[in-house]
Write a structure and sequence with these properties.
Layout lengths: L2 E7 L2 H23 L2 E5 L3 H12 L11 E5 L1 E3 L9 H4 L1 H7 L21 H14 L12 E5 L21 E4 L9 E4 L1 H4 L4 E6 L5 H9 L16 E7 L7
Parallel strand pairs: 1-9, 2-3, 2-5, 5-8, 8-9
Antiparallel strand pairs: 4-7, 6-7
Helix pairs in contact: 1-2, 2-4
The structure holds the ligand O=C1O[C@H](COP(=O)(O)O)[C@@H](O)[C@H](O)[C@H]1O.
């Protein structure tokens, strides 16, 4: 049975702090159990605030960061130096963990326009990287925690309502994204749903209707967030403003 939980915090900052504390504990537990932790991080307002909260949390010294792999749920297919890049916005966290053992070759960033001519090529390269780090017969590593921000339209990663879908495992190219920039790379829903725990991070009153719709019924096409789940647990980590319609 998959545990399903909704945790409501006071505001975005409190939610970010709660996620950071939970993430540090989950990574510590994963390393104790399996010797390694695979974590998928997300961009977005709360996703980046949560990563900054990890960087600022003194308990981060309790983690053996040399055993941690970071992956991305999605990325904007633009220049590596663009402020639009999720990876660039999270650099503060990775920099703060380097003195604590994190190795840059276990921070698996999705490709940019500096490296690949098309988003398809960048997606194919990420799919291959996921397979390289996977156990035999699997398409991706066993993610311990996979975090997803959610947009007011209920999109997660770069999977938008009634937009690009794929039944394949791995990463796909997304074009004509309703939210700029237009070209992106995203994990597929099938890959997202292989994670042990999926955490959906939601803050802000403008997201209240989408949060309520995602709890109502599973409808992957119209409400992508409703279809994301972990194999062991699905946690909605939200603030009070987003929770007003629950
Ligand atoms: O474009 C994206 O948007 C979502 C949500 O962003 P938010 O600012 O509304 O929280 C994010 O999770 C995703 O990674 C990003 O590429």
């Amino acid at each position: 049975m998959i545990a399903r939980q909704i945790v409501i915090h006071d505001d975005l900052q409190a939610t970010a702090q709660g996620i950071a504390a939970r993430l540090i504990t989950s990574i510590t537990d994963a390393i104790a159990a399996r010797g390694v932790a695979h974590v998928v991080v997300t961009g977005g307002s709360l996703g980046i605030a949560a990563l900054k909260a990890v960087a600022a949390n003194p308990a981060k010294i309790a983690v053996d960061w040399a055993q941690v792999h970071f992956w991305w749920g999605d990325e904007r297919f633009v220049e590596a130096s663009s402020p639009e890049r999720n990876a660039g916005q999270a650099q503060e966290l990775f920099d703060s963990l380097l003195p604590l053992g994190l190795e840059l070759d276990t921070v698996h960033v999705m490709g940019s326009t500096d490296q690949y001519a098309t988003a398809e090529e960048a997606a194919a390269a990420y799919t291959a990287l996921l397979a390289e780090e996977a156990a035999e017969g699997a398409a991706s590593p066993a993610f311990d925690v996979l975090m997803l921000g959610m947009g007011p339209d209920s999109h997660i990663a770069s999977l938008f309502p009634n937009h690009t879908r794929s039944d394949e495992l791995g990463a796909i190219a997304v074009h004509n994204s309703p939210k700029p920039p237009a070209d992106r790379v995203s994990l597929t829903m099938g890959t997202i749903n292989t994670a042990r725990e999926v955490w959906l991070l939601v803050a802000g009153a403008e997201k209240a209707p989408a949060l309520a719709a995602a709890q109502h019924e599973v409808n992957e096409a119209a409400v992508p967030a409703s279809a994301a789940h972990g194999t062991e647990a699905t946690r909605w980590l939200v603030d009070r403003a987003a929770a007003t319609l629950l």
